[in-house]
Amino acid sequence: MPELVIEGARRLDGEIKIQGAKNSILPIIAACIISRDECTIHNCPKISDVYASIKILNYLGCTTSFENNTLVINSRNILKNNIPDFLMREMRSSIIFLGALISVSGQAKLCLPGGCELGPRPIDLHLDGLRQMGLIINESHGILNCETCISGLRGCNISLSFPSVGATENLILAAVCAHGETIITNIAKEPEIIDLTNFLIKCGAKIKYNGDSTIVIQGVKKLHGTEHTVISDRIAAITYMSAGVVTSGNLILKNISEDSISSAIPIFEESGCIIKIFDKNNLKIECPSRPYSNRIIRTMPYPGFPTDAQAPVMSMNTIADGTSMFIENIFSNRYKHVDELLRLGADIKVEGKVALVNGVKRLSGAKVCARDLRGAAALVIAGLGAEGTTSITGLNYLDRGYENIETILSSLGAKIKRI
Ligand code: UD1
Q: Ligand 1: residues whose CB is within 6 Å?
């Protein structure tokens, strides 16, 4: 089983470029099939979730090429409208292909994503919205069999009871080629959704925001291919900033998007970091010799503090001066990294959605196992800050979302290798 071995407590110093956003590229890849044309996507991260999406594209009949972070997808000859179980299971967020497949052919057959490492992951909001648009959905033995009636999907008014990222994306993908106007209220407002809609508009979709919580989509007959550059990954940026904090480092992050990480910047300032944004897309972070603890961190839908950053930021608080409280409001099972951080000497107590972190002076190396993507990042951060050797297994999770993480950290002075 591959492991990452880290000799910790080495200061990180230097400059890195932040990768393209995982949560943008995945729905954009699904959106490409609606164009039934050629799309060229730049700044595409080389992560396993992207490779899993490419496998789905190839299964459906698309041709693809992926070189130097540019992904070219030709979807002119899509042959299928189903996704087999083994491809769905490889990446839980493959449910995002549902709305796209319906737009392409009016039919889709795929298995339910089921529970995952973050707890149960229902898709009731996706399905309720699609049903309102006239989609007939038969659910049986974990398989979704979907088809539109003869007149196809029709626009309607949909109000989401929670601003689900995936439901917002699936409904947008279904609505772009539906008959008439679809108005969705209480949408998720994540920057990755704006990136998806910018991409779709370039493909010929008619999409407008009405205020910041409502989207109006005028269905068009067809889309066409385009060229697009994916936005920067805000969670990767926060991960590297947290790694800077645990090692008292000085980092320059290039290719960031200031707007999208603005809810996280006060957290780092509260820790005692000095942060400067320069030349619009670059960020300099100077970290103190020991951070102050963050008093309270509540995960919330955007523009609140992102749930995906909870684990990395918890790691930096394990060695902070003081106590911090985390309240995880988005996913019910997102503290799996806590037991592993305890092995490194952290002092954390969890009660339901609350975790109380009492900062200790230092962590010490141990053998730990990652059990979800951002939890894996949290263990890397903790290992970088810990005295001695930390070895981390469960790297399949890490590789879902981080491109070349050990090469990047090595370039900053970390002693880290994959064996
Ligand atoms: C996306 C992100 C993930 C991030 C999450 C929240 C991608 C590929 N993944 O996941 O990294 O952590 O947003 O920012 O973009 N829910 C329902 N019913 C539904 C849909 C969701 O109850 O039909 C609940 C979920 O169980 C969860 C909450 O809503 O508790 C948030 O889920 P959602 O916003 O849909 O997250 P994802 O799209 O799965």
A: 23, 26, 93, 121-126, 162, 164-167, 188, 307-308, 330-331
Residue 25 has pLDDT above 70, yes or no: yes
pLDDT, tens only, 47-84? 999 999 999 999 999 999 999 999 999 999 999 999 99
Q: What is the DSSP string of 368-406?
A: EE--SHHHHHHHHHHHHHSBSEEEEE-HHHHHHH-SSHH
Residues of the chain with CATH 3.65.10.10: 4-18+232-418, 22-229
Report the alpha-carbon distance of residue 153 to residue 85 in Å, rounded.
26
User: Among the atoms of ligand 1, which is closest to the Cα of residue 169?
Assistant: 38
Give the tokens for residue 179. Answer: 């008959």
Q: Give the pLDDT confidence score for residue 28 in this predicted structure.
A: 98
> pTM above 0.85?
yes
Architecture in CATH of 4-18+232-418: Alpha-beta prism (3.65)
Arithmetic mean of pLDDT over the chain:
95
Round to whole Å and give the CA distance between 297 and 386.
Answer: 23
- Which ligand 1 atom is the nearest neighbour of the CA of 93? 8
| Ligand 1 mutation pick, 49, 56, 137, 164, max ligand atoms within 8 A of CB | 164
CATH number of the domain at 22-229, out of 2.60.200.30, 3.20.20.70, 3.65.10.10, 3.90.1640.10? 3.65.10.10
